Description:
By secondary structure, the protein is of the alpha+beta class. It has helices at residues 3-20, 114-142, and strands at residues 25-26, 36-42, 47-54, 60-68, 77-78, 90-93, 107-108. It contains two helices and seven strands, in the order αβββββββα. Strands 1, 2, 3, 4, 5, 6 and 7 form a seven-stranded mixed beta sheet that branches. The protein is globular and about 40 Å long. The mean pLDDT is 91.
Amino acid sequence: MDKHIRKLIVTEFERLLQIQMPEYIRDTSAEMPRGWYLYSKRLPKVSLFLVLVTSPRDNRFTLEIAWSTTHQFPHCTSFGPNEPPGPQGLQFRLSALWSGTGADYWWRVSEPSVGIVQAQVGTAVVQLTKYGVPYLEELARLQ
């Protein structure tokens, strides 16, 4: 991914998180692959995670969500929320919550334009607030 585009994506994602989900903070406690950005919300019985994943090969990004009862990022990607959790919790692509086929959805950024990045990241955050956050909040409520 173009470094300038990556920076625009991360900056816009963090700006929208601050506005819409300020309880999720940047988390550097877990070792993440290059181009992966972790945000967490720690509750008494469970930690909730959002992950911005930028592609190392092309100008696109995706989102993952995760949860853990050990308060450590689970590092165990599964295909969706119906998979059995690992010993530390569960991690999966956000698109598993709305895609009936389990499709792996990525948002493309065609050029290093602030307007294009804002539109794509904005669309991704809408999906996050529509599907990911309600899933995580319900999971936390049941703990």
